[in-house]
Amino acid sequence: MRFGTDILRQADVLAAFTEDPPGVTRTYLTPQHRQAGDYLASLMREAGMEARYDALGNVVGRYAAARSGAPVVMTGSHMDSVRDAGRYDGLFGILTAIACVRDLHRRGKRLPFDFEVVAFGDEEGVRFGVTLIGSKAMGGSFDPAWLDAKDAGGTTLRDALLAFGGDPEAWRSLDRRGKGVVAYVESHIEQGPVLLNEGLPVGVVTAIASGARVRVSVTGLAGHAGTVPMGARRDALAAAAEMVLAVERIASAPGAGGSALVGTVGTIEARPGAINVIPQEVSFTVDVRSGDDAARRRATQAMREDFDAIARRRSVVVTSDVFYELPAAPCDPALQDALAASIARQGLTVRRLPSGAGHDAMVFPPVCPIAMLFVRCGAGGISHHPDETMTAGDAEIATAVFLDFLETWIPRAPAPR
């Protein structure tokens, strides 16, 4: 096996760089981020690439073209994780690209473009509550206000970058718009069951779903759990529970986007948090996603209107704030076709499917056309969970497909530098 066994072994090494052993938790600008970044940089250099950290803690590897001034093709994914994660989300896209470069370098082959592999420091947003930090800087959508975002311990992103050895004031230098990049192509585990259920190892992504995140606060009135009659209560948690069910109902309704629309309440907190006190304050978050921007906006608005109606009926006060929004990102048809051709040359059936999850690729359309290759997950397609898995055989196939794409795709035209 040329690729698969090594890739899974390297993923096992990276899984040991965790804040909460034996589970995998690796957040931005932590010692574990440094361990993972140093290991990936060493793999890049061993494969024949130049590798360095940039100002925001991303690791950037470069395999130069045969001639200077060639266009640039980018790939990569994230090295951070959610809490108690699996070991292939994000990292597979980095490791498979490094494997491709290693094979090319061993054969003494250069590509007609500079090939850059980026290990993004933060995609998940666990530590600072801001997602896609590294890729947004490269995609030209970094917001300097994020530098004042704080983690749970009160450390700002700015101070964490300085402690890491980064440069928070140099984020503009990462913008890749107008820098000769002609494509961004990312390989990623599917994080779902479609390919698994259809018996296919890989697929071509058609679009990456749009997403919105809503922060909701509900305020009622605390009272003694034993003395306040049920009909007189202004229970913030009971109201929030009804709102949570409204999210499920609206996201599941026919005509709201069907299976292409999903809504999730991922966090909820009640205060004062005593067993014998009626909850007075509740906060929760809603994540709404769809491949259709209009459907997602309609659903988000319907949820907020339902929250208001529930609050009026239950005599509580609700506020809801959309604090994050990202549009859907269609994948480039020509790049999709090129990936499909590479799959077909491996003797495999071509399956095209949308991505319900967000990825670093989705912020690159202002820079260049994008594409994604999906790889089958095992264990029912589960991801963001310790049971996340893939086989060495699928890693082998996906890497062979990606390598074929790199060796056969010809840039349409160099972008201006």
What features would you highlight for this structure?
four-stranded antiparallel sheet; 417 residues; nine-stranded mixed sheet; alpha/beta
Provide an overview of this structure.
By secondary structure, the chain is of the alpha/beta class. It contains 10 helices and 13 strands. The strands form 2 sheets. Strands 1, 2, 3, 4, 5, 6, 11, 12 and 13 form a 9-stranded mixed β-sheet that branches. A 4-stranded antiparallel β-sheet has the order 8-9-7-10, with helices on one face. α2 runs parallel beside α3 and α9 crosses α10. The longest helix has 22 residues. The protein starts with a helix and ends in a 9-residue tail after the last helix. The mean pLDDT is 95.
Please summarize the sheet with the most strands.
Answer: 9 strands, mixed
- Estimated helix fraction: 25-40%
Shape: globular
Counted beta strands:
13
Alpha-carbon distance between the termini?
40 Å
Low-confidence stretches: none
Order of helices and strands: HHEEEHEHHEHEEHEEHEEHEEH
Number of H/I helices: 10
Rg calculated over all Cα atoms: 23 Å
SSE arrangement:
Layout: H1 4-15, H2 31-47, E1 50-53, E2 59-63, E3 72-78, H3 91-106, E4 114-120, H4 133-139, H5 157-164, E5 181-189, H6 194-198, E6 202-208, E7 210-219, H7 236-252, E8 261-271, E9 281-290, H8 293-314, E10 317-326, E11 329-330, H9 333-345, E12 352-355, E13 370-375, H10 392-408
Helix pairs in contact: 1-3, 1-10, 2-3, 3-10, 7-8, 9-10
